[in-house]
From TrEMBL:
<dbReference type="GO" id="GO:0006166">
    <property type="term" value="P:purine ribonucleoside salvage"/>
</dbReference>
<feature type="domain" description="Alpha-D-phosphohexomutase alpha/beta/alpha">
    <location>
        <begin position="7"/>
        <end position="135"/>
    </location>
</feature>
<feature type="domain" description="Alpha-D-phosphohexomutase alpha/beta/alpha">
    <location>
        <begin position="257"/>
        <end position="329"/>
    </location>
</feature>
<keyword id="KW-0413">Isomerase</keyword>
<dbReference type="InterPro" id="IPR005841">
    <property type="entry name" value="Alpha-D-phosphohexomutase_SF"/>
</dbReference>
<dbReference type="GO" id="GO:0005975">
    <property type="term" value="P:carbohydrate metabolic process"/>
</dbReference>
<feature type="domain" description="Alpha-D-phosphohexomutase alpha/beta/alpha">
    <location>
        <begin position="154"/>
        <end position="252"/>
    </location>
</feature>
<dbReference type="Pfam" id="PF02878">
    <property type="entry name" value="PGM_PMM_I"/>
</dbReference>
<dbReference type="InterPro" id="IPR016066">
    <property type="entry name" value="A-D-PHexomutase_CS"/>
</dbReference>
<dbReference type="InterPro" id="IPR005844">
    <property type="entry name" value="A-D-PHexomutase_a/b/a-I"/>
</dbReference>
<dbReference type="Pfam" id="PF02880">
    <property type="entry name" value="PGM_PMM_III"/>
</dbReference>
<keyword id="KW-0460">Magnesium</keyword>
<dbReference type="Pfam" id="PF02879">
    <property type="entry name" value="PGM_PMM_II"/>
</dbReference>
<dbReference type="InterPro" id="IPR005845">
    <property type="entry name" value="A-D-PHexomutase_a/b/a-II"/>
</dbReference>
<protein>
    <recommendedName>
        <fullName>Phosphoglucomutase</fullName>
    </recommendedName>
</protein>
<dbReference type="InterPro" id="IPR005846">
    <property type="entry name" value="A-D-PHexomutase_a/b/a-III"/>
</dbReference>
<comment type="similarity">
    <text>Belongs to the phosphohexose mutase family.</text>
</comment>
Length: 343
């Protein structure tokens, strides 16, 4: 089965696996990516995936198609957060990455995300060109053995150099990756800096425990309960590919990104003295504008979609926020951060 109606949305192509997100269409789109990249110098491409059903199979199909087209493909050895894959593109100076994920969508969905060499969401002019290279039929290729690697250690080193995590020493924290690609990431990183960490839902489950892997109030009730019962200082939850987050305090109260960005911005501007423009999507809280006005910080409003915020980060914004749970920092690659630490 295939269709010629593959279209990128706000952050990649997503569809139902019982409809048209299938191996045929994934291979077609991988071929189109290869054609797009053929005009650029270099051959290295990163491929990652989340914990959804068949994500690893789709990722291997992408690696096989691109490998047959002459690209040097590195495939993550385990489900990996989208921000980690994005950082790896920049660190290794790869041409691009493909991440197989449907982010926070229900388990029946999957997705194909293209990450260019700057390590952020692909802009519309890029995805439109990729769409123009889609072949009509399936792309037949022999499955290749891709080079496997785990980018966790390199990402931890990057974060550790840019964020003072020693302040977490002695804190009791509960993490909840919601059965997604962030399992083992945040818990390991925080533990290395002296935090006492307990991880719940810390293993891959393609059905995400019967929920959509979105860290909203409803889906973080177990996290809130665990934080209160264990007398932890706070808890952090991520979505399916760990590029969105939410938190709960010691009383089990849920903090959405619209609330957390105010806390983070106030910390950066009042306590750290950071200055520079801030970007937010049109649906992100306008309270951010009022807070920034206190410190003389200009705010840029963008359409919905982190790709528009990415452009602002690439042009000098020190902070960018979207109401869906993503925050980006000027010191990092222009992609959502799975661990939302200010500097």
């Amino acid at each position: 089965m295939f269709t010629s109606q593959i279209r990128f949305g706000t952050d990649g192509w997503r569809s139902r696996m019982d409809a048209d997100f299938n191996r045929t269409n994934v291979r077609r789109l991988a071929y189109a990516v290869g054609k797009y990249l053929s005009k650029k110098q270099g051959k290295s491409v990163i491929v990652g995936y989340d914990t959804r059903r068949n994500s690893s199979v789709f990722a291997l199909d992408v690696a096989s198609v691109l490998g047959a087209m002459g690209y040097k493909v590195q495939l993550t050895s385990r489900p990996t957060p989208t921000p980690v894959v994005a950082y790896t593109v920049v660190r290794t100076q790869a041409l691009a990455a493909v991440q197989i994920t449907a982010s926070h969508n229900p388990p029946i969905y999957n997705g194909f995300k293209f990450i260019p060499d700057y390590g952020g969401p692909a802009f519309p002019e890029i995805t439109s060109e990729i769409e123009s290279y889609l072949p009509e039929g399936d792309v037949h290729t022999q499955q290749l053995e891709a080079q496997r690697f785990d980018p966790m250690a390199d990402y931890f080193e990057f974060v550790s150099k840019n964020v003072d995590l020693t302040r977490l020493q002695g804190l009791k924290i509960v993490t909840d990756p919601l059965y997604g690609a962030g399992f083992g990431y945040l818990s390991t990183l925080l533990s290395r800096f002296g935090a006492k960490v307990e991880e719940i839902h810390g293993y891959p489950d393609p059905e995400f425990g019967g929920l959509s892997p979105e860290p909203n109030r409803e889906n973080t009730r177990e996290l809130a309960k665990k934080v209160v019962e264990s007398k932890a200082d706070f808890g952090i939850a991520n979505d399916g590919d760990a590029d969105r987050f939410a938190a709960v305090d010691e009383k089990g109260e849920h903090y959405s990104s619209n609330m957390l960005v105010l806390v983070i911005a106030d910390y950066l501007f009042r306590l750290k003295g950071l200055r520079g423009k801030v970007a937010r999507s049109v649906s992100t809280t306008s309270k951010l504008d009022k807070l920034c006005a206190r410190y003389g910080i200009p705010v840029v409003e963008t359409p919905v979609g982190f790709k528009y915020l990415a452009k602002e980060l690439m042009s000098g914004a020190v902070l960018a926020a979207e109401e869906s749970g993503g925050i980006g920092y000027g010191w990092s690659v222009p992609e959502f951060r799975f661990a939302q630490f200010p500097t």
